[in-house]
Design goal:
- The protein is mainly α.
- The protein has a single domain, classed as Orthogonal Bundle (Recoverin, domain 1).
- Helices cover 55% and strands 7% of the residues.
- It is built from seven helices and four strands.
- Helix 2 crosses helix 7.
- The protein starts with 7 loop residues before the first helix and ends in a 5-residue tail after the last helix.
- The chain binds calcium ion (3 copies).
- One calcium ion binds next to strand 1.
Length: 143
């Protein structure tokens, strides 16, 4: 369940509706259950990946949180590439900057909190972005 957001495309149960997935993901990230996802809560989640605390999560740290997914499979690489590239550079690291930018993507009205309505708007886009990365990786090079 740890990897719910970062690997949302593969982690969620197929039996759930998109709305259920969304509500579950929101509830998971809203650690203190006050109805808002705060930066501190995003950081806490990020820190479960960034186990050595250097503000950089590499593919190894990322996939260490996944079960049943090969480290270099499209299903692992796709979400990694998506989050890695949020700051506009693919440097094989999901950095604190990527997370900051992910959070500002979610906080549409800029009040430093993400409510369910904002999450409802942004989460499907994140999922679509990840899906696109996975499809991209599955397409043979040179096509
Ligand atoms: Ca909260
Ligand atoms: Ca990066
Ligand atoms: Ca907000």
């Amino acid at each position: 369940m740890k990897f719910l957001i970062l690997c949302s495309v593969i982690a969620v149960a197929a039996s759930q509706t998109p709305q259920e997935q969304l509500a579950q993901a929101f509830k998971f990230l809203d650690n203190n259950q006050d109805g808002f996802i705060e930066m501190s809560e995003m950081k806490a989640y990020y820190n479960t990946f960034d186990t050595n605390g250097d503000c950089s999560v590499d593919l190894g740290e990322f996939t260490a949180q996944m079960t049943g997914v090969a480290a270099n499979s499209p299903e692992a690489r796709g979400p990694f590439n998506y989050y890695d590239g949020i700051d506009g550079t693919i440097d094989n690291a999901i950095t604190c900057k990527d997370v900051d930018l992910l959070f500002s993507k979610m906080d549409l009205n800029g009040d430093t909190k993400t409510n369910l309505q904002e999450f409802d708007t942004v989460f499907p886009k994140i999922q679509a972005g990840i899906q696109a990365e996975i499809e991209n990786l599955k397409t043979p090079v040179g096509k």
